[in-house]
């Protein structure tokens, strides 16, 4: 554990243990993930105070500037562009491509242990005649899933295509369903690795009026009871919420649409 | 005259609430949003007709059809929070989507993020 003044950093998780109390650059989408370390690019940046990613060369220059009594905000670097959303999107793509590897846990046995722990719940349910009822079982699976999210232990990919290439197709009559939707707002706020992550994708039946389409349709609809608004769609309302809020909402919705089996299957022993 | 108008509006509201829920269940968002617009406009007209119309909407929250009851309750929350919350709390215990939606409505109300009737 390392003390970075503003907060503690866990080298095992490759994450800070608490969110940044500030967003270093509100124009930079990756800075809205307030747990990331140096914009997920430790090769390029260093962090001296727990708040700001700084290019090492600029840190040195900054040191000189500091000695010269120049106001401190001048030694913060910002590798991205400002203002133009197209340029911002390009900046994000260029920035994240080298920083994100093919998966956060590819070489991490402990991550797989977490996933296996989730699998064991599903296995116990289906094969051991476990006395846990279905609701309790789902609750446990959901809690395990939340732990995966909170510890960033799922396996992430740089795109949905990369995810499918690695994890395979969802199977006949099924589709991979993002629990937290893959939309521009979520990609911008949380990054592709969080959205295209093994803890965020679940196989659901796909076809006209089947679960995948039912839930996607629900997100496109106006639901006054759910949102407290009769103007916003569920999707528009959700896009300002945290990743965890959206994930819990998405899982519960699958359950309420009768998809409990698929939640358990996804995290159970039968998971491919 | 006003009484008949209120009765008509309550009928329109009831039909739209039921259609909205049924469309939502099958993911038919186009129909759901069309019905949501009817619900919004009808509720606004009812509000403009004063307490008698508001009372009629509140009475609708006692409907046996839960989709109608829940929608009438959320559009009566600002007018009569106690009775509306009581209706929503009862529906929230129901299994399935309607129970989930009623629970969500109570959560939004508690959070203070309620936007209906603004």
UniProtKB/TrEMBL annotation, chain B:
Gene3D superfamilies: Phosphatidylinositol 3-kinase, accessory domain (PIK)
Source taxon at top rank: Bacteria
Protein name: DUF2019 domain-containing protein
């Amino acid at each position: 554990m390392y003390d970075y003044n503003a907060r503690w950093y866990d080298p095992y998780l490759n994450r800070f243990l608490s969110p940044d109390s500030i967003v270093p650059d509100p124009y930079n989408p990756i800075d809205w993930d307030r747990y990331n370390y140096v914009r997920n690019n430790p090769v390029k940046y260093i962090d001296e105070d727990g708040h700001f990613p700084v290019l090492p060369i600029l840190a040195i220059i900054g040191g000189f500037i500091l000695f010269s009594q120049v106001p401190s905000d001048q030694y913060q670097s910002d590798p991205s562009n400002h203002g133009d959303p197209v340029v911002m999107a390009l900046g994000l793509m260029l920035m994240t491509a080298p920083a994100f590897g093919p998966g956060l846990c590819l070489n991490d046995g402990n991550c797989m242990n977490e996933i296996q722990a989730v699998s064991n719940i599903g296995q116990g349910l289906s094969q051991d005649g476990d006395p846990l009822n279905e609701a309790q079982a789902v609750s446990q699976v959901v809690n395990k899933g939340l732990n995966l999210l909170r510890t960033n232990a799922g396996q992430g990919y740089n795109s949905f295509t990369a995810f499918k290439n690695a994890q395979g197709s969802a199977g006949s009559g099924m589709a991979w369903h993002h629990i937290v939707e893959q939309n521009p707002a979520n990609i911008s706020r949380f990054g592709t690795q969080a959205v295209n992550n093994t803890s965020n994708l679940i196989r659901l039946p796909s076809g006209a009026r089947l679960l995948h389409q039912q839930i996607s349709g629900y997100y496109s609809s106006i639901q006054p009871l759910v949102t407290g608004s009769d103007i916003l769609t569920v999707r528009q309302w959700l896009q300002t919420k945290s990743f965890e809020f959206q994930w819990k909402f998405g899982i519960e919705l699958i359950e309420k649409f009768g998809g409990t089996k698929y939640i358990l299957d996804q995290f159970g022993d039968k998971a491919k | 005259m006003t009484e008949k108008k209120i009765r008509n509006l309550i009928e329109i509201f009831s039909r739209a609430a039921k259609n909205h829920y049924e469309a939502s269940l099958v993911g038919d968002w186009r129909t759901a949003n069309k019905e949501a617009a009817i619900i919004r406009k009808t509720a606004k007209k009812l509000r403009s007709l004063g307490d008698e119309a508001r009372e009629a909407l509140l009475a609708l929250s006692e409907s046996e059809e839960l989709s109608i009851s829940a929608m009438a309750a959320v559009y009566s929350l600002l007018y009569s929070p106690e009775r509306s919350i009581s209706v929503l709390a009862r529906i929230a215990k129901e299994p399935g989507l309607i129970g989930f939606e009623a629970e969500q409505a109570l959560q939004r109300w508690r959070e203070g993020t309620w936007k209906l009737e603004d």
